């Protein structure tokens, strides 16, 4: 079975990375960019609507 992942993009420093939904907090939780430490709801960091739906569906 393939493991799902979501693509993330910091709206402030533009760092992009991938993570599995199980390694992330809920989409409505405050999340901090590992690069610049900007703080936003995790949903703001998802790159696309599909990434957000994957995150919501697997949490």
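^ structure tokens above, recovered residues below v
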């Amino acid at each position: 079975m393939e493991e799902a992942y979501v693509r993330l993009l910091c709206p402030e420093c533009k760092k992009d990375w991938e993570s599995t939904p199980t390694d992330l907090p809920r989409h409505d939780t405050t999340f901090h960019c590992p690069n610049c430490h900007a703080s936003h709801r995790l949903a703001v960091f998802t790159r696309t609507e599909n990434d957000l739906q994957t995150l919501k569906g697997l949490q």
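The CA atoms of residues 14 and 31 lie 15 Å apart.
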